[in-house]
Write a structure and sequence with these properties.
Helix content is about 80%, strand content about 0%. It contains 10 helices and 2 strands. A two-stranded parallel ribbon has the order 1-2. Helix 3 packs antiparallel against helix 5, helix 7 packs parallel to helix 10 and helix 9 runs antiparallel to helix 10. It has one domain. By secondary structure, it is an all-alpha fold. It is found in: Cell membrane; Membrane. GO terms for molecular function: proton motive force dependent protein transmembrane transporter activity.
Protein backbone atom coordinates (compact mmCIF):
# COMPACT_ATOMS: atom_id res chain seq x y z
CA UNK A 1 0.00 0.00 0.00
CA UNK A 2 2.75 2.42 0.97
CA UNK A 3 4.61 1.61 -2.23
CA UNK A 4 1.48 2.26 -4.31
CA UNK A 5 0.96 5.59 -2.56
CA UNK A 6 4.57 6.59 -3.25
CA UNK A 7 4.23 5.63 -6.91
CA UNK A 8 0.97 7.54 -7.14
CA UNK A 9 2.58 10.55 -5.44
CA UNK A 10 5.50 10.54 -7.88
CA UNK A 11 3.06 10.22 -10.80
CA UNK A 12 1.01 13.15 -9.47
CA UNK A 13 4.14 15.29 -9.14
CA UNK A 14 5.22 14.47 -12.68
CA UNK A 15 1.74 15.26 -14.00
CA UNK A 16 1.74 18.57 -12.13
CA UNK A 17 5.22 19.42 -13.46
CA UNK A 18 4.14 18.59 -17.01
CA UNK A 19 1.06 20.79 -16.60
CA UNK A 20 3.14 23.74 -15.34
CA UNK A 21 5.64 23.34 -18.17
CA UNK A 22 2.78 23.28 -20.68
CA UNK A 23 1.45 26.56 -19.24
CA UNK A 24 4.88 28.19 -19.48
CA UNK A 25 5.47 26.93 -23.01
CA UNK A 26 2.01 28.05 -24.17
CA UNK A 27 2.44 31.57 -22.79
CA UNK A 28 5.98 31.77 -24.20
CA UNK A 29 4.78 30.81 -27.70
CA UNK A 30 1.94 33.36 -27.57
CA UNK A 31 4.28 36.12 -26.39
CA UNK A 32 6.86 35.10 -28.99
CA UNK A 33 4.30 35.51 -31.78
CA UNK A 34 3.33 38.93 -30.40
CA UNK A 35 7.01 39.87 -30.05
CA UNK A 36 7.50 39.62 -33.82
CA UNK A 37 5.43 42.81 -34.17
CA UNK A 38 7.88 44.82 -32.05
CA UNK A 39 11.16 43.39 -33.36
CA UNK A 40 11.53 46.03 -36.09
CA UNK A 41 11.43 49.12 -33.80
CA UNK A 42 13.64 47.37 -31.23
CA UNK A 43 16.19 46.47 -33.91
CA UNK A 44 16.33 50.04 -35.20
CA UNK A 45 16.59 51.42 -31.68
CA UNK A 46 19.49 49.12 -30.82
CA UNK A 47 21.38 49.96 -34.01
CA UNK A 48 20.47 53.55 -34.93
CA UNK A 49 20.46 54.88 -31.37
CA UNK A 50 24.25 54.74 -30.95
CA UNK A 51 24.78 55.39 -27.24
CA UNK A 52 28.54 55.14 -27.54
CA UNK A 53 28.83 57.84 -30.19
CA UNK A 54 30.44 55.34 -32.55
CA UNK A 55 28.55 55.24 -35.84
CA UNK A 56 28.47 51.73 -37.25
CA UNK A 57 27.07 50.17 -40.38
CA UNK A 58 25.92 46.60 -40.00
CA UNK A 59 26.36 44.03 -42.73
CA UNK A 60 24.97 40.57 -43.44
CA UNK A 61 27.69 38.01 -44.08
CA UNK A 62 25.29 35.12 -44.65
CA UNK A 63 21.76 34.64 -45.94
CA UNK A 64 20.48 33.77 -42.48
CA UNK A 65 21.98 36.67 -40.50
CA UNK A 66 18.82 38.76 -40.71
CA UNK A 67 16.54 35.85 -39.80
CA UNK A 68 18.81 34.83 -36.93
CA UNK A 69 18.95 38.31 -35.43
CA UNK A 70 15.19 38.74 -35.92
CA UNK A 71 14.50 35.49 -34.05
CA UNK A 72 17.04 36.29 -31.34
CA UNK A 73 15.45 39.66 -30.54
CA UNK A 74 11.96 38.12 -30.49
CA UNK A 75 13.11 35.32 -28.15
CA UNK A 76 14.84 37.71 -25.74
CA UNK A 77 11.68 39.86 -25.59
CA UNK A 78 9.51 36.77 -25.05
CA UNK A 79 11.81 35.40 -22.33
CA UNK A 80 11.83 38.73 -20.50
CA UNK A 81 8.05 39.12 -20.58
CA UNK A 82 7.31 35.52 -19.58
CA UNK A 83 9.90 35.52 -16.76
CA UNK A 84 7.43 36.55 -14.00
CA UNK A 85 4.87 33.99 -15.18
CA UNK A 86 7.56 31.28 -15.29
CA UNK A 87 8.71 32.10 -11.78
CA UNK A 88 5.11 32.01 -10.55
CA UNK A 89 4.64 28.53 -12.07
CA UNK A 90 7.82 27.35 -10.34
CA UNK A 91 6.50 28.75 -7.08
CA UNK A 92 3.09 27.13 -7.63
CA UNK A 93 4.80 23.76 -8.16
CA UNK A 94 6.96 23.85 -5.01
CA UNK A 95 4.58 25.81 -2.74
CA UNK A 96 2.54 22.77 -1.56
CA UNK A 97 5.68 21.51 0.18
CA UNK A 98 6.26 24.83 1.96
CA UNK A 99 4.78 26.22 5.15
CA UNK A 100 2.29 29.13 4.81
CA UNK A 101 4.91 31.64 5.99
CA UNK A 102 7.44 30.24 3.51
CA UNK A 103 4.87 30.41 0.73
CA UNK A 104 4.27 34.11 1.33
CA UNK A 105 8.00 34.83 1.65
CA UNK A 106 8.95 33.10 -1.61
CA UNK A 107 6.02 34.63 -3.51
CA UNK A 108 7.35 38.10 -2.70
CA UNK A 109 10.56 37.33 -4.62
CA UNK A 110 8.85 37.06 -8.02
CA UNK A 111 8.31 40.78 -8.81
CA UNK A 112 11.73 41.70 -7.42
CA UNK A 113 13.45 39.14 -9.67
CA UNK A 114 11.89 40.85 -12.67
CA UNK A 115 12.75 44.35 -11.39
CA UNK A 116 16.38 43.41 -10.72
CA UNK A 117 16.63 41.82 -14.15
CA UNK A 118 15.36 45.01 -15.82
CA UNK A 119 17.72 47.14 -13.71
CA UNK A 120 20.68 44.99 -14.78
CA UNK A 121 19.51 45.12 -18.38
CA UNK A 122 19.37 48.92 -18.28
CA UNK A 123 22.77 49.25 -16.60
CA UNK A 124 24.39 46.86 -19.04
CA UNK A 125 22.95 48.58 -22.11
CA UNK A 126 23.12 52.25 -21.11
CA UNK A 127 26.43 52.16 -19.20
CA UNK A 128 28.65 49.16 -19.95
CA UNK A 129 27.82 48.60 -23.62
CA UNK A 130 28.59 52.21 -24.70
CA UNK A 131 31.92 52.01 -22.87
CA UNK A 132 32.77 48.77 -24.65
CA UNK A 133 31.79 50.17 -28.04
CA UNK A 134 33.69 53.42 -27.62
CA UNK A 135 36.79 51.59 -26.38
CA UNK A 136 36.87 49.06 -29.22
CA UNK A 137 36.04 51.78 -31.78
CA UNK A 138 38.83 54.09 -30.61
CA UNK A 139 41.32 51.22 -30.54
CA UNK A 140 40.39 50.20 -34.09
CA UNK A 141 40.94 53.78 -35.26
CA UNK A 142 44.36 53.89 -33.63
CA UNK A 143 45.30 50.72 -35.47
CA UNK A 144 44.00 52.13 -38.74
CA UNK A 145 41.42 49.40 -39.16
CA UNK A 146 38.33 49.69 -41.33
CA UNK A 147 35.33 48.82 -39.19
CA UNK A 148 33.02 46.41 -40.97
CA UNK A 149 30.61 44.80 -38.53
CA UNK A 150 28.31 41.87 -39.14
CA UNK A 151 24.88 42.23 -37.61
CA UNK A 152 25.08 38.77 -36.02
CA UNK A 153 28.43 39.60 -34.38
CA UNK A 154 27.09 42.98 -33.19
CA UNK A 155 24.13 41.44 -31.37
CA UNK A 156 26.26 38.61 -30.00
CA UNK A 157 28.64 41.23 -28.58
CA UNK A 158 25.67 43.14 -27.13
CA UNK A 159 24.06 40.10 -25.49
CA UNK A 160 27.37 38.81 -24.12
CA UNK A 161 27.70 42.07 -22.17
CA UNK A 162 24.12 42.83 -21.18
CA UNK A 163 22.82 39.39 -20.15
CA UNK A 164 25.60 38.51 -17.65
CA UNK A 165 25.16 41.90 -15.95
CA UNK A 166 21.39 41.34 -15.79
CA UNK A 167 21.99 38.03 -14.04
CA UNK A 168 24.51 39.60 -11.64
CA UNK A 169 21.86 42.06 -10.52
CA UNK A 170 19.96 39.08 -9.10
CA UNK A 171 22.71 38.61 -6.50
CA UNK A 172 20.84 40.25 -3.58
CA UNK A 173 17.77 38.09 -4.15
CA UNK A 174 19.83 34.91 -4.43
CA UNK A 175 21.66 35.64 -1.18
CA UNK A 176 18.41 36.65 0.51
CA UNK A 177 16.78 33.41 -0.60
CA UNK A 178 19.73 31.31 0.60
CA UNK A 179 19.57 33.13 3.92
CA UNK A 180 15.88 32.24 4.19
CA UNK A 181 16.89 28.59 3.69
CA UNK A 182 19.62 29.04 6.36
CA UNK A 183 22.34 28.09 3.91
CA UNK A 184 23.97 31.53 4.19
CA UNK A 185 24.05 34.15 6.94
CA UNK A 186 25.67 37.60 7.34
CA UNK A 187 28.51 36.15 9.40
CA UNK A 188 29.59 33.88 6.54
CA UNK A 189 29.10 36.67 4.00
CA UNK A 190 31.38 38.99 5.98
CA UNK A 191 34.04 36.28 6.21
CA UNK A 192 33.72 35.74 2.45
CA UNK A 193 33.97 39.48 1.66
CA UNK A 194 37.57 39.42 0.40
CA UNK A 195 36.95 36.40 -1.79
CA UNK A 196 33.69 37.89 -3.03
CA UNK A 197 35.37 41.19 -3.91
CA UNK A 198 38.09 39.36 -5.80
CA UNK A 199 35.48 37.41 -7.78
CA UNK A 200 33.59 40.63 -8.55
CA UNK A 201 36.82 42.27 -9.77
CA UNK A 202 37.46 39.32 -12.08
CA UNK A 203 33.90 39.48 -13.40
CA UNK A 204 34.04 43.25 -13.97
CA UNK A 205 37.31 42.86 -15.92
CA UNK A 206 35.90 40.00 -18.01
CA UNK A 207 32.70 41.79 -19.09
CA UNK A 208 34.26 45.21 -19.78
CA UNK A 209 36.95 46.52 -22.14
CA UNK A 210 40.55 46.27 -21.06
CA UNK A 211 40.80 49.63 -19.33
CA UNK A 212 40.78 50.45 -15.64
CA UNK A 213 38.04 53.09 -15.75
CA UNK A 214 35.41 50.85 -17.35
CA UNK A 215 36.15 47.93 -15.02
CA UNK A 216 36.03 50.24 -12.00
CA UNK A 217 32.74 51.76 -13.15
CA UNK A 218 31.17 48.29 -13.36
CA UNK A 219 32.79 47.10 -10.13
CA UNK A 220 31.17 49.85 -8.01
CA UNK A 221 27.53 48.71 -8.48
CA UNK A 222 28.58 45.06 -8.08
CA UNK A 223 30.20 45.84 -4.73
CA UNK A 224 27.15 47.85 -3.69
CA UNK A 225 24.95 44.91 -4.66
CA UNK A 226 27.04 42.60 -2.49
CA UNK A 227 26.89 44.97 0.48
CA UNK A 228 23.14 45.32 -0.03
CA UNK A 229 22.96 41.52 0.00
CA UNK A 230 24.81 41.44 3.34
CA UNK A 231 22.40 44.01 4.82
CA UNK A 232 19.34 42.08 3.63
CA UNK A 233 20.82 38.83 4.90
CA UNK A 234 21.49 40.46 8.29
CA UNK A 235 17.88 41.61 8.53
CA UNK A 236 16.51 38.14 7.74
CA UNK A 237 19.04 36.49 10.07
CA UNK A 238 17.92 38.67 12.99
CA UNK A 239 14.31 37.66 12.41
CA UNK A 240 15.34 34.01 12.31
CA UNK A 241 17.23 34.30 15.59
CA UNK A 242 14.27 36.06 17.21
CA UNK A 243 11.90 33.34 15.97
CA UNK A 244 14.24 30.61 17.26
CA UNK A 245 14.49 32.29 20.67
CA UNK A 246 10.71 32.63 20.89
CA UNK A 247 10.27 28.99 19.93
CA UNK A 248 12.78 27.86 22.57
CA UNK A 249 11.09 29.96 25.26
CA UNK A 250 7.76 28.24 24.58
CA UNK A 251 9.22 24.79 25.18
CA UNK A 252 11.07 25.73 28.37
Amino acid sequence: MAEEKNNQSVFDHLSELRRRLFYVLSVFVLVLVAAFFVVDPIYHYLTVNALSGVRIELNAFSFWDGVGVYMKIAMVVALGITLPFTLYQVWAFVSPGLKPAEQKATLKYIPFVFICFLAGLAFGYFVVFPLAMSFTGSLNKQLGLIETYGMADYFKFLLNIVLPISLLFELPLVILFLTQLRILNPIRLKKMRRVAYFILVVISVMITPADFFSAFLVLIPLVLLYELSVMLSKRVYKKQLAADAERESKYK
